[in-house]
Write a structure and sequence with these properties.
The chain has a single domain (2-233), classed as 3-Layer(aba) Sandwich (Collagenase (Catalytic Domain)). Helix content is 50%, strand content 14%. The chain has eleven helices and six strands. A four-stranded mixed beta sheet has the order 1-2-6-5. Strands 3-4 form a two-stranded antiparallel sheet.
Protein backbone atom coordinates (compact mmCIF):
# COMPACT_ATOMS: atom_id res chain seq x y z
CA UNK A 1 0.00 0.00 0.00
CA UNK A 2 2.86 2.39 0.76
CA UNK A 3 4.44 1.71 -2.63
CA UNK A 4 1.14 2.42 -4.37
CA UNK A 5 -0.22 5.33 -2.31
CA UNK A 6 2.81 7.24 -1.00
CA UNK A 7 5.24 8.28 -3.79
CA UNK A 8 7.68 9.78 -1.29
CA UNK A 9 8.07 6.31 0.21
CA UNK A 10 9.36 4.98 -3.11
CA UNK A 11 12.47 7.17 -3.04
CA UNK A 12 13.40 6.40 0.57
CA UNK A 13 16.64 4.44 1.04
CA UNK A 14 15.97 0.87 2.15
CA UNK A 15 17.44 1.43 5.61
CA UNK A 16 15.05 4.32 6.17
CA UNK A 17 12.12 2.24 4.93
CA UNK A 18 12.82 -0.34 7.62
CA UNK A 19 13.01 2.43 10.22
CA UNK A 20 9.80 3.98 8.91
CA UNK A 21 7.91 0.69 9.24
CA UNK A 22 8.77 0.56 12.93
CA UNK A 23 7.76 4.19 13.42
CA UNK A 24 4.43 3.55 11.70
CA UNK A 25 3.68 0.59 13.96
CA UNK A 26 4.29 2.69 17.07
CA UNK A 27 2.27 5.59 15.65
CA UNK A 28 -0.72 3.39 14.83
CA UNK A 29 -0.58 1.86 18.29
CA UNK A 30 -0.43 5.22 20.09
CA UNK A 31 -2.76 7.40 18.01
CA UNK A 32 -6.51 7.18 17.66
CA UNK A 33 -8.17 8.01 14.34
CA UNK A 34 -11.67 9.49 14.56
CA UNK A 35 -13.95 9.70 11.52
CA UNK A 36 -15.87 12.94 10.95
CA UNK A 37 -18.51 13.93 8.43
CA UNK A 38 -19.36 10.38 7.43
CA UNK A 39 -15.85 9.28 6.48
CA UNK A 40 -14.89 5.64 7.13
CA UNK A 41 -11.50 5.12 8.75
CA UNK A 42 -9.89 2.38 6.66
CA UNK A 43 -6.42 0.83 6.75
CA UNK A 44 -5.55 3.07 3.80
CA UNK A 45 -6.54 6.24 5.69
CA UNK A 46 -4.53 5.25 8.74
CA UNK A 47 -1.46 4.07 6.85
CA UNK A 48 -1.18 6.92 4.34
CA UNK A 49 -1.41 9.51 7.12
CA UNK A 50 0.86 7.62 9.52
CA UNK A 51 3.56 7.04 6.90
CA UNK A 52 3.90 10.71 6.08
CA UNK A 53 3.69 11.86 9.69
CA UNK A 54 6.45 9.42 10.58
CA UNK A 55 8.74 10.71 7.80
CA UNK A 56 9.45 13.62 10.15
CA UNK A 57 10.54 11.24 12.92
CA UNK A 58 13.20 9.32 11.01
CA UNK A 59 16.65 9.44 12.63
CA UNK A 60 15.17 11.11 15.73
CA UNK A 61 16.18 8.38 18.16
CA UNK A 62 13.37 7.06 20.34
CA UNK A 63 11.37 10.29 20.18
CA UNK A 64 7.74 10.11 19.03
CA UNK A 65 4.86 12.57 18.87
CA UNK A 66 3.78 13.29 22.42
CA UNK A 67 1.14 15.48 24.00
CA UNK A 68 -1.83 14.33 21.93
CA UNK A 69 -3.57 11.14 20.85
CA UNK A 70 -6.33 11.96 18.39
CA UNK A 71 -6.37 12.53 14.64
CA UNK A 72 -9.71 13.73 13.28
CA UNK A 73 -10.28 13.01 9.59
CA UNK A 74 -12.98 14.66 7.46
CA UNK A 75 -13.85 13.43 3.96
CA UNK A 76 -13.11 16.85 2.43
CA UNK A 77 -12.33 20.42 3.43
CA UNK A 78 -14.30 21.45 6.49
CA UNK A 79 -15.56 24.66 8.05
CA UNK A 80 -13.77 25.85 11.16
CA UNK A 81 -14.69 28.86 13.34
CA UNK A 82 -12.24 31.73 13.74
CA UNK A 83 -12.22 34.40 16.43
CA UNK A 84 -10.31 37.66 15.94
CA UNK A 85 -10.07 40.72 18.15
CA UNK A 86 -10.09 44.38 17.15
CA UNK A 87 -9.50 46.15 20.44
CA UNK A 88 -12.37 45.16 22.69
CA UNK A 89 -14.45 43.86 19.77
CA UNK A 90 -14.61 40.09 19.29
CA UNK A 91 -15.13 39.08 15.65
CA UNK A 92 -16.42 35.63 14.78
CA UNK A 93 -15.93 34.16 11.33
CA UNK A 94 -15.71 30.79 9.56
CA UNK A 95 -13.10 29.49 7.13
CA UNK A 96 -12.71 26.40 4.97
CA UNK A 97 -9.68 24.35 5.94
CA UNK A 98 -7.69 21.33 4.79
CA UNK A 99 -6.02 20.75 8.13
CA UNK A 100 -5.24 22.08 11.59
CA UNK A 101 -2.98 21.27 14.48
CA UNK A 102 -4.33 22.30 17.87
CA UNK A 103 -1.71 23.13 20.49
CA UNK A 104 -1.52 20.11 22.81
CA UNK A 105 -4.63 18.85 21.03
CA UNK A 106 -5.67 16.83 18.01
CA UNK A 107 -4.53 17.03 14.42
CA UNK A 108 -7.41 17.57 11.97
CA UNK A 109 -7.12 16.56 8.31
CA UNK A 110 -9.21 16.54 5.14
CA UNK A 111 -8.82 13.14 3.50
CA UNK A 112 -9.32 14.52 -0.02
CA UNK A 113 -6.50 17.01 0.59
CA UNK A 114 -4.32 14.26 2.02
CA UNK A 115 -4.82 12.19 -1.14
CA UNK A 116 -4.23 15.15 -3.45
CA UNK A 117 -1.09 16.36 -1.68
CA UNK A 118 0.33 12.85 -1.33
CA UNK A 119 0.01 12.14 -5.06
CA UNK A 120 1.33 15.56 -6.18
CA UNK A 121 4.77 15.03 -4.74
CA UNK A 122 6.50 17.85 -6.62
CA UNK A 123 4.19 20.75 -5.77
CA UNK A 124 5.69 21.37 -2.33
CA UNK A 125 2.35 21.10 -0.57
CA UNK A 126 1.53 18.33 1.85
CA UNK A 127 -1.05 18.86 4.57
CA UNK A 128 0.17 15.89 6.65
CA UNK A 129 3.79 17.07 6.67
CA UNK A 130 2.59 20.60 7.41
CA UNK A 131 0.37 19.81 10.38
CA UNK A 132 2.79 17.35 11.96
CA UNK A 133 5.62 19.84 11.57
CA UNK A 134 3.54 22.03 13.89
CA UNK A 135 3.57 19.17 16.39
CA UNK A 136 7.38 19.14 16.35
CA UNK A 137 7.41 22.92 16.70
CA UNK A 138 5.29 22.82 19.86
CA UNK A 139 7.44 20.26 21.68
CA UNK A 140 9.01 23.12 23.67
CA UNK A 141 5.49 24.43 24.50
CA UNK A 142 5.81 27.27 21.97
CA UNK A 143 4.67 27.28 18.33
CA UNK A 144 7.14 29.85 17.09
CA UNK A 145 9.20 28.23 14.36
CA UNK A 146 11.98 27.43 16.84
CA UNK A 147 11.61 23.73 17.71
CA UNK A 148 13.85 21.80 20.06
CA UNK A 149 17.23 21.49 18.37
CA UNK A 150 19.11 18.35 19.32
CA UNK A 151 22.41 20.04 18.48
CA UNK A 152 22.63 23.15 20.68
CA UNK A 153 25.41 24.54 18.52
CA UNK A 154 22.80 24.95 15.76
CA UNK A 155 20.71 27.43 17.74
CA UNK A 156 22.54 30.55 16.60
CA UNK A 157 22.63 29.64 12.90
CA UNK A 158 19.02 28.40 13.00
CA UNK A 159 17.78 31.69 14.45
CA UNK A 160 19.88 33.76 12.07
CA UNK A 161 19.08 31.87 8.86
CA UNK A 162 15.37 31.36 9.51
CA UNK A 163 14.84 34.94 10.62
CA UNK A 164 16.54 36.27 7.50
CA UNK A 165 14.71 33.86 5.17
CA UNK A 166 11.36 34.58 6.81
CA UNK A 167 11.80 38.32 6.35
CA UNK A 168 12.85 37.78 2.74
CA UNK A 169 9.75 35.68 2.04
CA UNK A 170 7.49 38.36 3.50
CA UNK A 171 9.12 40.96 1.23
CA UNK A 172 8.75 38.71 -1.83
CA UNK A 173 5.10 38.07 -1.07
CA UNK A 174 4.47 41.79 -0.59
CA UNK A 175 6.02 42.45 -4.00
CA UNK A 176 4.00 39.66 -5.61
CA UNK A 177 7.13 37.74 -6.65
CA UNK A 178 7.25 34.01 -7.34
CA UNK A 179 8.88 31.97 -4.59
CA UNK A 180 9.83 28.33 -4.18
CA UNK A 181 8.21 28.48 -0.76
CA UNK A 182 4.45 28.75 -0.50
CA UNK A 183 3.42 32.30 0.37
CA UNK A 184 1.48 30.98 3.39
CA UNK A 185 4.85 30.69 5.09
CA UNK A 186 4.91 34.49 5.38
CA UNK A 187 1.97 34.45 7.83
CA UNK A 188 4.07 33.69 10.93
CA UNK A 189 7.34 32.00 11.97
CA UNK A 190 5.37 28.88 12.92
CA UNK A 191 3.80 28.65 9.46
CA UNK A 192 7.18 29.37 7.89
CA UNK A 193 8.68 26.35 9.65
CA UNK A 194 5.80 24.13 8.50
CA UNK A 195 5.93 25.40 4.90
CA UNK A 196 9.70 24.92 4.66
CA UNK A 197 9.25 21.38 5.99
CA UNK A 198 6.82 20.62 3.16
CA UNK A 199 9.24 22.04 0.59
CA UNK A 200 12.23 20.26 2.16
CA UNK A 201 10.63 16.86 1.61
CA UNK A 202 8.79 17.48 -1.65
CA UNK A 203 10.99 19.97 -3.54
CA UNK A 204 14.45 19.47 -2.07
CA UNK A 205 16.35 20.27 -5.28
CA UNK A 206 14.59 23.61 -5.69
CA UNK A 207 15.00 24.48 -2.01
CA UNK A 208 18.68 23.58 -2.01
CA UNK A 209 19.33 25.64 -5.14
CA UNK A 210 17.31 28.70 -4.14
CA UNK A 211 17.89 28.66 -0.38
CA UNK A 212 21.07 26.62 0.32
CA UNK A 213 21.54 27.83 3.89
CA UNK A 214 17.90 27.11 4.73
CA UNK A 215 18.20 23.64 3.23
CA UNK A 216 21.34 23.03 5.28
CA UNK A 217 19.60 24.02 8.53
CA UNK A 218 16.72 21.64 7.84
CA UNK A 219 19.13 18.86 6.89
CA UNK A 220 20.74 19.26 10.31
CA UNK A 221 17.39 19.44 12.10
CA UNK A 222 15.79 16.39 10.46
CA UNK A 223 19.08 14.47 10.07
CA UNK A 224 17.90 13.66 6.53
CA UNK A 225 18.85 14.64 2.99
CA UNK A 226 15.83 14.31 0.64
CA UNK A 227 17.91 15.79 -2.18
CA UNK A 228 20.12 12.71 -1.94
CA UNK A 229 17.08 10.44 -2.18
CA UNK A 230 15.94 12.30 -5.26
CA UNK A 231 19.35 12.08 -6.92
CA UNK A 232 19.78 8.35 -6.32
CA UNK A 233 16.25 7.60 -7.53
CA UNK A 234 16.81 9.61 -10.71
CA UNK A 235 13.76 11.75 -9.93
CA UNK A 236 10.50 11.23 -8.08
CA UNK A 237 9.00 7.82 -8.92
Amino acid sequence: MLEQRVPLYRVLPEALKDQLHGRINIFLDEKHFTACGGLEITDEVRLVIAAQACMLLLNRGAKNYSGFKTILVYPDTYIAPDVEYDGMVEIHDEHERAGESWHRGPVILSWQDVIRDTSRIRDGRNVVLHEFAHKLDEENDHSDGFPILRDRSQQQTWASVLSREYDALQEQVDRGEFTVLDEYGAVSPAEFFAVVTETFFERPAQLKESHPELYEEFTKFYKLDPYGWYSKAGGWA
